[in-house]
Amino acid sequence: MDIRFSEIAHAFQPSQIRNKIFDDPGVISFAAGKPDSSLFPTDKMKQVFNNVIDRHGEGAFQYSETEGLKDLRTIIANQRMEVAGVNVNAENIALTSGAQQGIEFSAKIFVNEGDVILTENPSYTGALSAFKAYRPKCVGVTMDNDGMKMEELEEKLQLYPNTKMIYTIPDFQNPTGVTMSIEKRKRLAELGAKYKVPIVEDCPYGDIIYEGKRYPSVKSFDKAGWVIYLGSFSKVFVPGLRIGWVCASAQILEKYIMAKQNSDLQCSSLNEVLTIEYMQAYDLEGHINKIKQVYKARRDLMLERIKQYFPEEIKYTTPNGGFFIWLELKQGIDANEILEKSFEDEKVVFVPGGSFFTGTEYKNFIRLSYSSVNDKEIIEGMKKLGKVVSNYY
Amino acid sequence: MDIRFSEIAHAFQPSQIRNKIFDDPGVISFAAGKPDSSLFPTDKMKQVFNNVIDRHGEGAFQYSETEGLKDLRTIIANQRMEVAGVNVNAENIALTSGAQQGIEFSAKIFVNEGDVILTENPSYTGALSAFKAYRPKCVGVTMDNDGMKMEELEEKLQLYPNTKMIYTIPDFQNPTGVTMSIEKRKRLAELGAKYKVPIVEDCPYGDIIYEGKRYPSVKSFDKAGWVIYLGSFSKVFVPGLRIGWVCASAQILEKYIMAKQNSDLQCSSLNEVLTIEYMQAYDLEGHINKIKQVYKARRDLMLERIKQYFPEEIKYTTPNGGFFIWLELKQGIDANEILEKSFEDEKVVFVPGGSFFTGTEYKNFIRLSYSSVNDKEIIEGMKKLGKVVSNYY
Question: Which of B45, B100, B108 faces A61 most closely, judged by CB atoms?
Fold first, then answer.
């Protein structure tokens, strides 16, 4: 069959984070950036189910508003945005199917073919893939231990006047685990306003901080409305409901709502009321505090085993939250080859770092996720992976 | 603020079928193309909730496959596609967030800027809006009482060699209620193959047939794989779970799955297992037979009241299924003006027909939906609307 696909469809690439070998039975997977399902409030959800039918009846199953139910948007504004240091109300919130949909809409709304998107380099591969459909030029900005280099960012804003979006993950970044400093957050908000470039702040992990208080979001420093905040319940509550949100000025939010209308009409009404009932009946902050302890212990264990089993000269990040550690191997090593070997010989998998870069030049990085593996798996898997990696040194 | 939106975002238009006045309290609405929520199997869903937690546990809340859970895809292949006359298996099915997402993906996958999409004229306004983002030229094909004129379709296929998609709603079409004959379905499948143009067959209403057996889908006549079938549980089960599907050849389906990955990763895992449990525990065919009787009685009542209260020379369709009757007013009458009057004077609303056309030339049409209004509302609302319309004759 000689099917003529669109240019967009020709540009589609299979996801590097949803490789089938990651689901192979018996593997120890440091690949999946997913929360540990044993931490989900499953028993509480059973109660919530019954409340939903009693209180919302058949309305839970009917069509509802494209932007999302007002009660849920109010909870998000009052609770989730408040902890991010942002003072907004329901009119500034629209729901999306996870933050991923907010990412895809951002490119759709701001970017024409050939326009520039500035991102941290490396950045979330699922965002880079989603952007690709709109055929932008994605230009990476180098990171320090406290986030994007702001001088380099400004240079690139000047160099590329057709920059239409800055995409950032300021908290425990995917894939590096790096957190942007408060000073840089302020500066980033200023630069967006100065150059009139929307900043898309992707915050799925912000609440999962191990030491200290949650960082104020970039959006909290946004005076003129250039920052679009993407939030999600996927990492702190459950991902299976597909409830995320966009927080933006009314003028910008209107475009996201129209994109949502065209794409899939609305999120699941049922999942919206389930989320409302859970948030009203239970203490999400308490739940977050509980899961943070578990993830922190796993981070500690993984870091310890890197020290124990990996070559001494290897560089790695020490995340203060989130799910990821980022490993830099010596130049010349191809992490894809390491993955092949560690899968075949040891049944241990991870995500090779290449697909997180805007270019194709870096192959010597590994993203390790510790969020959905238990202590035994970390101990065993890191020993095995350390052995494979050590063979290259 | 001087925000530079993309060309796509500039082309967004507010939905004509989600006008805020339709939700005004106290209106009688013939506007909403939604199922009657009093017909939902709400009590059964309460039982299904408990089964889901018992059987799937925390997995119901975790991330799962982009294409959808295999058990659900198998049920869809074996049950829903079988009633559409199509013999496929789970490998030919991928889930979407309602058929709407399948519609949007179709344009994304097949259409470049300036390419032609051929559609029935009029057609579903939500599809025309979704297509617009990809800046095609939408060319309408005139309809008879048994669907698209096939000679005109072929002429246009010859006239526009850059036709990349034919979009059709063969059963109880939105907005006209018209059904495509079996002969035309065969011919349409042949034309797609002959001109190598994908046919996107949108089938949300196919099961809701009042008299006779369900029509075989266009896909059932598809030998070479040019037909993409879009299905949905929204009208026959519940819309609030946002579960629809695409049925296509493996080569085409792969592109839909990659579009899904980029857009929102996956449908709601919870809603997938809820649908599986419902389908396994209860008889959807029996449920469909029950709701069909209700919708048929409402259609009869609405047709009767058109005869009674509307000007004699008015033309209208007599749908054999689905949710809609299509009214043609005499030329020169603007249905938008009628809507204004009937809302202000009588608190009765409907969707003016203009937005369903590929061009802007037709204003004298009205879409009436009888699916979510009770007998009392139909009797009262049609009397009032008939009065408003009669004033123009």
Answer: B45
Q: Backbone dihedral region of B319: left (phi > 0), alpha (psi from -120 to 50 degrees) or beta?
A: beta
Confidence at A34, pLDDT banded by 50, 70, 90: very high
| CB atoms B240 and A164 under 8 Å | no
The pLDDT-based confidence of A287 (bands split at 50, 70, 90) is very high
* Residue ranges, chain B, pLDDT below 70: 17-18
Rounded Cα gap, residues B64 and B149, in angstroms: 43
Q: Same domain for A238 and A294?
A: no
Torsions phi, psi of B87, nearest 5? Answer: -105, 95
Cβ <8 Å between B18 and A242: no
Looking up residue B63, the CATH number of its domain turns out to be 3.40.640.10
Q: What is the DSSP string of A41-58?
A: -HHHHHHHHHHHHHHHGG
Provide, as residue numbers in chain B, all residues whose Cβ is less than 8 Å from the Cβ of A234: 63
User: pLDDT at position B154, please?
Assistant: 98
- If you measure CA to CA, which chain A residue comes closest to B67? A18
Q: Provide, as residue numbers in chain A, all residues whose Cβ is less than 8 Å from the Cβ of B42.
A: 53, 57-58, 60-61
pLDDT band at A25 (very low <50, low <70, confident <90, very high): confident
Residue B339 located in a structural domain: yes
Contacts of A277 in chain B (CB under 8 A): none
Instruction: Count Cβ atoms below 10 Å from residue A26 Cβ, excluding itself.
Output: 5
B120 shares its domain with B245:
yes
**Which one of A262, A281, A300 terminates a domain?**
A281
Task: Give yes or no for A37 touching B (CB within 8 A).
Answer: yes
B 133-172 near A (Cβ less than 8 A):
133-134, 164
B2, part of any domain: no
> How is residue B29 written in tokens?
């609405």
Residue A19 confidence (pLDDT) above 90? no
Show the tokens assigned to A149: 């280099």
Helix (H) or strand (E) holding B244: strand B244-247
A161 and A31, same structural domain? Answer: no
Return the pLDDT at A2: 85
Residue-number span of the structural domain to which A110 is assigned: 42-281
Is B316 found in the same domain as B245? Answer: no
Min Cα separation B107/chain A (Å): 8
Contact A102, A244 (CB under 8 A): yes
Q: Which of residues 56-85 of B touch A (CB under 8 A)?
A: 57-64, 66
Last residue in a domain, options A281, A303, A338: A281
- Do A177 and A295 lie in one domain? The reply is no
* Residue A333 is assigned to a structural domain of this protein: yes
CB-CB under 8 Å, B1 with A251: yes
- CA dist A221 and A227 (Å) reads 9
Look at residue A17 in the predicted model and tell me its pLDDT.
Answer: 67
Chain A positions touching B198 (Cβ under 8 A) are 3
- The structural domain count of chain A equals 2
Specify the CATH number for the domain of residue B342.
Answer: 3.90.1150.10
Is residue A248 domain-shared with residue A321, that is, in the same domain? Answer: no
Measured between CA atoms, the residue of chain B closest to residue A235 is B62
Q: What is the mean pLDDT of residues A262-282?
A: 97
pLDDT above 70 for A165 = yes
User: What are φ and ψ of residue B312, in 5° steps?
Assistant: -60, -35
CB atoms B258 and A164 under 8 Å? no
A195 and A313, same domain (yes or no): no
CA distance to partner chain A, nearest, from residue B29 (Å) = 15
The answer to whether residues A230 and A255 belong to one domain is: yes
Alpha carbon separation from A239 to A37, B52, B64, B67, B245 (Å, rounded): 9, 16, 9, 16, 21
Residue A173: pLDDT over 90 = yes
Instruction: Tell me how far apart the alpha carbons of residues A40 and A136 are, in angstroms, rounded to a whole number.
Output: 38
Taking an 8 Å cut-off on Cβ atoms, the answer to whether A6 and B108 are in contact is yes
Name the average pLDDT for chain A: 95
Q: Which of A16-20, A61-65, B167-171 has the lowest mean pLDDT?
A: A16-20
Tell me the chain B residues in contact with residue A225 when contact means C-beta distances shorter than 8 Å: 1
Considering the domain boundaries, does residue A1 fall inside one?
no
Across residues A2-12, what is the average pLDDT? 90
Give me the pLDDT at residue B17, please: 67
Q: Which residues of chain A neighbour B239 with C-beta distances below 8 Å?
A: 61-63, 269
